[in-house]
């Protein structure tokens, strides 16, 4: 089974469920640079280390609304700059460029909608600073940036308190991931840890119920009586939860689907799990 879907066994989920003020260097009036040099071949653009790349309307506009996000450089086409002005988002003032200039700075298939920003990463909170009044998502080696970005978007929609990932075997919060997150990075903290099992134990010590999503789970997620705080744990597509992660969870749950296709990719699985868990906690 490919990266785009989850097998019905050994997957993340189960029968039917697989899984301050903003600073800116060089503020001033918009500038018009000369014609950009043509981009040769299809090489990947290079960026300075520890730089977050955002492109597209939602990622960039939400970053501009976030006082905690320090933007180093902002590029916009004339049409995109007009849209920013209509939304009251001209601080910092963008550098006006032709679309080809942004094309040169992003990957070949990127849909940038005339907006591009280079930013500092947002601060990653400590695990013990995560609020204990809601849901936390834990990702066990989910590596595809499209999937993680979509999970971040769903997490922001469901007011998830944090997403916990490992330093290794997880994509950086930039570029493709940020585009797929559609602005969600500005609203959902990402907590990175060295050891996932130890982090899960730390969440349990703070009162979290650890629910792993697994196709062989002994109970349907909707049948569990849940009270906040809850940590939903999802594994990588194909592999699912690692054995140590499974052993650390308090419950292994599945979500049964009625249709002929009994698997979802991990980002869709996360959204469905958040919906079910959110309703269960409200009861």
From TrEMBL:
InterPro entries given in the database record: Alpha/beta_knot_MTases (IPR029028), Ribosomal_eL30-like_sf (IPR029064), rRNA_MeTrfase_TrmH (IPR004441), SpoU_MeTrfase (IPR001537), SpoU_subst-bd (IPR013123), tRNA_m1G_MTases_N (IPR029026)
Any Pfam family the entry gives: SpoU_methylase
Key words, A-Z: Methyltransferase, Transferase
Molecular function GO terms recorded: RNA binding; RNA methyltransferase activity
SUPFAM superfamilies: alpha/beta knot, L30e-like
Methyltransferase listed as a keyword: yes
Any one annotated GO CC term: cytosol
Domain RNA 2-O ribose methyltransferase substrate binding: 53-125
Region (Disordered): 1-47
Keyword Transferase: yes
Biological-process GO terms, alphabetical: methylation; RNA processing
Bias-annotated ranges (Polar residues): 1-11
Top-level taxonomic group: Bacteria
NCBIfam families: rRNA_methyl_3
Family: Belongs to the class IV-like SAM-binding methyltransferase superfamily. RNA methyltransferase TrmH family.
Name of the protein this chain belongs to: 23S rRNA (Guanosine(2251)-2'-O)-methyltransferase RlmB
Species assigned in the record: Blastochloris sulfoviridis
Gene: rlmB
């Amino acid at each position: 089974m490919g990266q785009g879907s989850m097998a019905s066994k050994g997957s993340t989920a189960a029968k039917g469920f697989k899984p301050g003020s903003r600073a800116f260097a060089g503020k001033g009036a918009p500038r018009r640079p000369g014609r950009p040099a043509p981009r040769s071949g299809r090489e990947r653009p290079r960026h300075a280390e520890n730089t977050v790349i955002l492109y597209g309307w939602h990622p960039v506009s939400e970053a501009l609304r976030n006082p905690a996000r320090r933007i180093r450089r902002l590029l916009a086409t004339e049409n995109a700059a007009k849209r920013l002005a209509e939304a009251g988002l001209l601080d910092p003032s963008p550098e006006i460029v032709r679309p080809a200039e942004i094309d040169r700075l992003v990957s070949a298939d990127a849909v940038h909608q005339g907006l591009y920003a280079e930013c500092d990463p947002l601060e990653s909170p400590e695990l013990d600073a995560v609020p204990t009044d809601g849901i936390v998502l834990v990702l066990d080696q989910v590596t595809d940036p499209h999937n993680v970005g979509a999970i971040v978007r769903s997490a922001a929609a469901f007011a998830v308190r944090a997403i916990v990932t490992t330093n290794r075997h997880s994509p950086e919060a930039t570029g493709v991931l940020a585009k797929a997150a559609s602005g969600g990075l500005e609203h959902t903290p990402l907590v990175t840890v060295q050891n996932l099992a130890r982090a899960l134990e730390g969440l349990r010590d703070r009162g979290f119920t650890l629910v792993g999503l697994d196709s062989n789970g002994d109970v349907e997620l909707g049948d569990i009586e849940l009270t906040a705080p809850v940590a939903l744990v999802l594994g990588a597509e194909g592999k699912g939860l690692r054995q140590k992660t499974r052993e650390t969870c308090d419950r292994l749950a599945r979500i049964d689907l009625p249709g002929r296709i009994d698997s979802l990719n991990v980002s869709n699985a996360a959204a469905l799990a958040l919906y079910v868990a959110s309703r269960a906690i409200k009861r």
